[in-house]
Amino acid sequence: MMEKVIVITGGSRGIGAATAYLAAERGYAVGVNYRHNHGAANAVVEKIRQQGGRAVAIAADIAIEADIITLFETVDKQLGTVTALVNNAGILEAQMRVENLNAARLNRIFTTNITGAFLCAREAVKRMSTKHGGPGGAIVNVSSIAARLGAAGEYVDYAAAKGAIDTMTVGLAKEVAAEGIRVNAVRPGFIYTDIHADGGEPNRVDRVKKGLPMKRGGEAMEVAKAILWLLSDEASYTTGTFIEVAGGR
User: Fold this and answer.
1) Which of 29, 113, 136, 234 could join 79 in a cystine, given CB atoms 3.0 to 4.6 angstroms apart?
2) Which domains are present in the chain?
């Protein structure tokens, strides 16, 4: 039986790291992509190896096309043919109203969050598609509840980028459904991860949690479990759809 090989972008922390651990538990060889934090990515890989799994840490900036190509070529050589992709890498910047945004910020947000996800999907499809002699596979895009809610006053640019990911999920799913590839997305809500500090408010989840129907923030592993279900054979007839992991929001 062919080994399951997964690429997780932004795999050194938060939802990406939780997904890496769970994927390894479920028998995947794991390509842990990171941009800068070599130590954090190596820690994820070491933990997986200590538990008997296979994993490698691969530096690549998802905003740079050449880096993405190198990422997938490295996985080819070190782990084997990709059978699963989790498009998790994403950035946001300081909370800001649209009237204060500039083009440079928008380009940074969109290049990583949209273009990077498209290019990773491109490389995965080239390897997975039965049309190209591949084994098939599954892609899960990490969107956000912000795509539906808009993130007014905070991150409308990030929310818009995730809206694009939602549309890409639906379109790509239809495009490759007959080629053995399923494409789905998760939409996390307020999850305890480091990304909130990037936006200038590390305690954001605690500020908003009482306004959520479930009265608590989510954990990265709760999102990872939804991702792994979508990747699994249990979701074999599910494509072009979304699981919201957002506490009822």
Assistant:
1) 29
2) 4-245 (3.40.50.720)
What six digits make up the tokens of 75?
């996985």
Cα 238 to Cα 119: distance, rounded to the nearest angstrom: 23
**Spatial CA neighbour of 144 closest among 121, 167, 161:** 161
- The closest alpha carbon to 249, from 208, 202, 221, belongs to 208
SS3 92: coil
* CB neighbour list of residue 75: distance below 8 Å, 6 or more residues apart: 5, 7, 31, 56, 58, 82
What pLDDT is attached to residue 206? 92
Widest Cα–Cα separation across the chain: 55
Q: Which of 106, 243, 235, 87 shows the shortest CA–CA distance to 168?
A: 87
**Closest C-alpha among 82, 23, 89 to residue 51:** 23
Average pLDDT over residues 105-120: 98
Select from 35, 91, 31 the least CA-distant residue to 61: 35
Indicate the pLDDT class of residue 199, thresholds 50, 70 and 90.
Answer: confident
Q: pTM of the predicted model, to two decimals?
A: 0.97
How is residue 92 written in tokens? 């946001």
Of 34, 158, 192, 237, catalytic: 158
User: What pLDDT band is residue 1 in, cutting at 50, 70 and 90?
Assistant: low
Q: What DSSP element (H or E) covers 187?
A: strand 181-188
Instruction: Please give the structure tokens belonging to residue 209.
Output: 């949690």
Could you tell me which of 94, 72, 93, 96 has the C-alpha nearest to residue 84?
Answer: 72
Side chain identity, residue 131: K
